[in-house]
């Protein structure tokens, strides 16, 4: 499947985090295309990590798209952007081992993110967190909401 080149990109901002790390976590995503906005969030009430939540946000956003499209995906996580654009192909080639021959952490999420990206034409962008970028700030608010809702639902 290929994305239609004339499509306006879906612009996605994602964020994730834990309080404390590791601990309960939340993720958030803001999806925009042609004036349409979708806000998404979720979380884990048990012990998870910042990195797992940062990976979950783009996975959930990409999996929510109903057809193949061009995506401009913004994350404030260097780990996520570098992992998917630079490291993941080598990890896969090496049987999901790092260059130090250690198992890749969060391999389940990296594989799921790879599969989600394969359906679309994704361009990855890094944005500095908490720097006033409106949709990045909103993704942070959504991640906090996801964390709070997950904790409340587990009580």
From TrEMBL:
<feature type="binding site">
    <location>
        <position position="15"/>
    </location>
    <ligand>
        <name>Mg(2+) 1</name>
    </ligand>
</feature>
<protein>
    <recommendedName>
        <fullName>Ribonuclease H</fullName>
        <ecNumber>3.1.26.4</ecNumber>
    </recommendedName>
</protein>
<keyword id="KW-0540">Nuclease</keyword>
<comment type="subunit">
    <text>Monomer.</text>
</comment>
<feature type="domain" description="RNase H type-1">
    <location>
        <begin position="6"/>
        <end position="148"/>
    </location>
</feature>
<dbReference type="GO" id="GO:0004523">
    <property type="term" value="F:RNA-DNA hybrid ribonuclease activity"/>
</dbReference>
<keyword id="KW-0963">Cytoplasm</keyword>
<feature type="binding site">
    <location>
        <position position="54"/>
    </location>
    <ligand>
        <name>Mg(2+) 1</name>
    </ligand>
</feature>
<dbReference type="InterPro" id="IPR050092">
    <property type="entry name" value="RNase_H"/>
</dbReference>
<dbReference type="Pfam" id="PF00075">
    <property type="entry name" value="RNase_H"/>
</dbReference>
<dbReference type="GO" id="GO:0003676">
    <property type="term" value="F:nucleic acid binding"/>
</dbReference>
<dbReference type="InterPro" id="IPR012337">
    <property type="entry name" value="RNaseH-like_sf"/>
</dbReference>
<feature type="binding site">
    <location>
        <position position="140"/>
    </location>
    <ligand>
        <name>Mg(2+) 2</name>
    </ligand>
</feature>
<keyword id="KW-0479">Metal-binding</keyword>
<dbReference type="GO" id="GO:0005737">
    <property type="term" value="C:cytoplasm"/>
</dbReference>
<dbReference type="InterPro" id="IPR002156">
    <property type="entry name" value="RNaseH_domain"/>
</dbReference>
<keyword id="KW-0378">Hydrolase</keyword>
<comment type="function">
    <text>Endonuclease that specifically degrades the RNA of RNA-DNA hybrids.</text>
</comment>
<dbReference type="InterPro" id="IPR022892">
    <property type="entry name" value="RNaseHI"/>
</dbReference>
<feature type="binding site">
    <location>
        <position position="76"/>
    </location>
    <ligand>
        <name>Mg(2+) 1</name>
    </ligand>
</feature>
<keyword id="KW-0460">Magnesium</keyword>
<dbReference type="InterPro" id="IPR036397">
    <property type="entry name" value="RNaseH_sf"/>
</dbReference>
<keyword id="KW-0255">Endonuclease</keyword>
<feature type="binding site">
    <location>
        <position position="15"/>
    </location>
    <ligand>
        <name>Mg(2+) 2</name>
    </ligand>
</feature>
<dbReference type="GO" id="GO:0000287">
    <property type="term" value="F:magnesium ion binding"/>
</dbReference>
<dbReference type="GO" id="GO:0043137">
    <property type="term" value="P:DNA replication, removal of RNA primer"/>
</dbReference>
<comment type="similarity">
    <text>Belongs to the RNase H family.</text>
</comment>
